[in-house]
Structures are given as C-alpha cells and as structure tokens.
TrEMBL record:
Domain Response regulatory, first and last residues per copy: 3-120
Modification sites for 4-aspartylphosphate: D54
Species, as recorded: Streptomyces asiaticus subsp. ignotus
Protein name as it appears in the record: Response regulator transcription factor
SMART domains linked: HTH_LUXR, REC
Amino acid sequence: MIRVLLADDDPLVRTGLKMMLRGADGIEVVGEASDGAEVAAAVREHAPDVVLMDIRMPVMDGLAATRELTRRGAQAPQVIVLTTFDEHGLVLEAMRSGAAGYLVKHAVPEEIVEAVRRAACGEPALSPSAARALIRHAAVGPDDRAELARQRLASLTEREREVAEAVAEGLSNTEIGTRLHLSLGTVKAHLSSALAKLDLDNRVQLALLTHDAHPRP
C-alpha cells in the first residue's frame, strides 16, 4: 500500500482528495494536516510514502514545509505540490525545494492517482503545464548558471552522467535500463550515487541541473 498524507488548509479539499484516493487500489490515506507547520509532526506520526502538499497555507506555506521535510534525507516522503497556482516561478521553486511533483487542483482524478503512484516509485509527477515551465526554464538559462551546472556534473562518472541525461529526458528507470543495457538495480544505484554526489534530493532536481548544463539555443 502507498501511504498518503494530505496537507491543505481547506477541509473540503482534504475530504474530496480522501474520497478520491480511497477509491484507488493500493493507496491509503493515513493522515491529514491543515497547515504546513503541522506536516513534520504528521509525517513522524504516520510515516507516509507521499505527501500531497498545498502551497498557500496560513502559518507555514507548502514550500517551506517541503524544504523542512527534504532535510530528513532518505527518510523523507515524496512530496507532490497540489495547488491552484499554476505559475512558472512557483513550479521552479517547488522543484528546488525538493518536491517530486507539481499538479494543479483541477487535474482529473486519474492524473492525481497516477502522480501518487509515480512519486511513490521515485518517478517525477508533473502536470503538462509544469513540465512546460521547466522546459522554458532550461531554454533560457544564463551562461553562468550553465557553467556552474557543468562544473557540478563533472563530479559524476560517465555512466552516472548518462543516467542523469536520460532522467532529464523524462525516461523512467526501466526505460533508462533498456537504453543503457543496465539492470533496474544498477540504474537505481547510479541514480542514488549521482544524487548523493550532487547533494540533490530527487530526480526532478537532477533533471533541472542537467538541463541547466545544456541550455537550448
């Protein structure tokens, strides 16, 4: 079972999400938080695999709560930002805060359920508009950011860089293994090693860094 925590200050939204997720096979809603300030304690209590996190909450916003969770390292759950705000800057800030996904609340239920499943497997979960925002960010990156990103990626082995580039293309671990003729376990090992060397929290941040290193004209 994939254990999910809901963090949103609107009780109607939490109720709707809970009803929707309870109808999905293999997913269990184990807890709720009505503010970002409550999330860390709720995670300790319920040990979720995935947190669906609103951005705008009254005491602590979802981005600050996400950053607090990612400091837990390997023990941190995957965070999917689920918000009404579909803004380029917020998408980037959420990803850099450590979120594994970004969805808007008007996403269809099937998209939200699939995002939870993808995040639980360590895969990115982005709405089409969020994915476009990341692509635009990569396309207009300044030269100094590109050089800094290339310097950071230079610490990786050749195989780790190949995995990072495949992650940046949006490939799943299985697809990366097929392309590079590697077992799934070997792909995961290279990915974990690359994240550790670069001090990154998840594959979305790795994709951002790789895009920064190779800005499009």
